[in-house]
Amino acid sequence: MTQSNRFFITIVFLLVAVIAINPPVDNDMWWHLRAGDEMWHQGKILLTDQFSYTKYGEDWVNAFWISDLALYGLWKVGGFFAITLTVSLLAAAVLWIVFKQMTGTIILRGLLVILAMMGMIANWTPRPQLLSFLLLAWLDSFLNQHINFKRQPLWALVILFALWGNLHGGFIWGALLLLATLAGETFNNLLGNQPKLSYREIGSLGGWSAIGLLAVSINPNGFELWKLPFQQVDVSLAIQEWLSPDFHQLYAHPMLWLLFLLIFGLAFAEKRISFTDLFKGLGFAYLFFFAQRNLVAYTIIILPIVEKFLSPALANLAAAPEVKTFLERFSKQTSEKQLPPKVAAVINNSLTGLFVVLLLGYAWAVSIPESIAKEVPAQATAWIKQNQPRGPIFNSYNWGGYLTWELREYPVFIDGRADLYGNEMIQEWVHISEGTEKGLALLESHQINLIYLEPYQALLGKLDPQQWEMVYGDSKIVIYQRRQ
Fold it and tell me: What is the pTM of this model?
């Protein structure tokens, strides 16, 4: 590899790491931190709810216990800076695995990786699902190697899924990837479309896949863990990640561009797309269009497929006489202006150092308490700590996790563990927050004395002023207290 290629790759992945930096304030990060804290100090895995008063003591399928302990360990060692930097480096690690899977030019692969990170940034937050993305990227690379290059030890699937079942419920993405691969290779054989695995090898892959998926159950929850991916949340609550992507918003456009680039590449294809790539691409595109929480998984799977067809398409374009003449002229001009190797090395090392400083400085800047306080309802929470009003509290869904971390003496009504609360409790929250007749009755039956909600919630305009008074308000949270 040339010096310029090494420099380009280094800058690409430093840029990926910089783009991936977000303030560490994901709504779910807080209850994951709290769970890690409790397990660390109690010396046991949490399998019942300890954070709410609506589900207290009930069974909780904890698919994240290793991830939560790791997250808390990071916070314990290096605070939110350590979490932010680790999240950033995980993005680079995931896309490095995808990058290595691609075979085209360094520049094309690098540009596709940057485009992918630009689309993934909205979903790249400190949550256990990041480890699912890492394992999904590894699994896709593993299967690609097994099918197209060198047969791999399939027993590794058992270890992979046993680990996955203790990190995050995203093992279902791995199961779907295996299913698409097995179906694709079967169709490739049936229809003579570039088959790479024999029927016997497909059977072997299927057998080890089944054992691997059974290994998911080697966790503190047992087979209960398999219920987790199939528990649906009523999207009338408008939980952002459960909704279909909004293509009026810029964040979703890079994912469309990847799809368009794939279609463009297919127009130049000399061979039909394999059914394996087709089923993988269509399957994960469907998941993404169904719910934006699948955005990153879709990107990881479709990116190598896009490059596979885009690379020869661009090569065909470059072979056109006019384009070829232009490229030759451009290449000649740039080669004449190249710097001496030693000078280029000094400049490259200096720029690399600047990017590293930028990465560390940016991660530090978004992680300091002042930066975090701007993103969370810190002042509203501080008011409760100072004044100690009577509970129970009816809280914002979005900030329930934050309260489990910052306001531990007040058990929450709800937080981001949608699988724990279920549709019935979530619908109760919806009725109360909308101030419906049923919701106002629930407010009384739960004996709620404190309300902690965003200013736009309809309930706040329907409270009886003789029973409730506003005691605090800002742009993020309004607090109402029941009159004595």
Answer: 0.94
